[in-house]
Amino acid sequence: MRLRHLSVLAAVTALLTLPVQAGAAQSSHTYHVAPRGSDHANGTQASPLRTIGACLERVRPGDTCLIHQGTYREQLTPPSGTEGAPITIAAYGDGPVTIDGTEQVTGWKDAGDGLIAADTDLPPDPDFNAVFLDNVRAAEGRWPNSGPDPLNTTWAEADTTSTDQHIDDTDLPDADWTGATVHLWAGSNPWAQQTGTVTATSQG
After folding, report:
1. How many whole angstroms separate alpha carbon 100 and alpha carbon 135?
2. Which segments of the chain have a pLDDT < 50?
3. What is the rounded average pLDDT for all residues in the chain?
4. Residue 86, preceding bond cis, omega within 30 degrees?
5. Which residues of 109-119 are buried (b: 16+ CB within 10 A; e: fewer)?
6. What is the C-alpha end-to-end distance of the chain, expressed in Å?
7. Is 89 exposed, middle or buried (0-12, 13-18, 19+ CB in 10 A)?
8. pLDDT digits (tens, 9 = 90+) for 60-108
9. What is the pLDDT of residue 60?
């Protein structure tokens, strides 16, 4: 089993009072959202909605979403109110409220050689993929391993038998690197780095 598909989309923020404005007719409803709720509920304090997204689908200018204590794993785009009737999204006040745009990865299995692996669906744009471990962004798996400072990274050193078509490195672990991204730096010009995709590998 190979270690793959571990990145998840991530964006974390705290939810505070947020009036948003634009144009539409005025309303005056207050909806409640709580982890114990249901998106099929009517949104009252006794029968709250489960997700902030469900509340945002219902609100109109002048309405309010009150969010109760908890963590909400959602990606949100708040709607617009009007200058005289803003839409208010606010913490209810019974404890901290967090919006977490990440998806929890479950189903971890032993992948051998001291590794564990899990499959997860990735968003279409890999530039936004990231893994968070204990709320700290983890470094992408790489060889040679390096510290968290991207300005002081650890580089491998290619053998002199390398060409513009292949890279030789006798220290490279014997593994299938096909599909991996390789970062190249000639060393003579620190601004002339290149990247490419590994199309085939063999030992060394």
Report:
1. 10
2. 1-25
3. 82
4. no
5. eeeeeeeebee
6. 22
7. buried
8. 999 999 999 999 999 898 898 999 999 999 999 999 999 988 888 889 9
9. 94
Residues 6+ apart with CB under 8 A from 186: 192
Q: How far is CA 83 from CA 35, 79, 204, in A?
A: 31, 13, 66
Number of Cβ within 10 Å of residue 105's Cβ equals 15
Give, as one character, the DSSP assignment of residue 63: -
The two structure tokens encoding residue 141: 């798996």
Q: How many CB atoms lie within 10 A of CB 95?
A: 9
Which pLDDT score, from 0 to 100, does residue 6 have? 35
CB-CB contact of 72 with 104 (8 Å)? no
Q: Which token pair is 57?
A: 């689908």
Q: Could you tell me the strand order of the sheet in which 64-67 lies?
A: 18-20, 87-91, 64-67, 30-33
CA–CA distance, 198 with 110 (Å, rounded to integer)? 26
Q: What is the pTM of this model?
A: 0.56
* DSSP string for residues in 150-172: TTS-------TT--SS----TTS
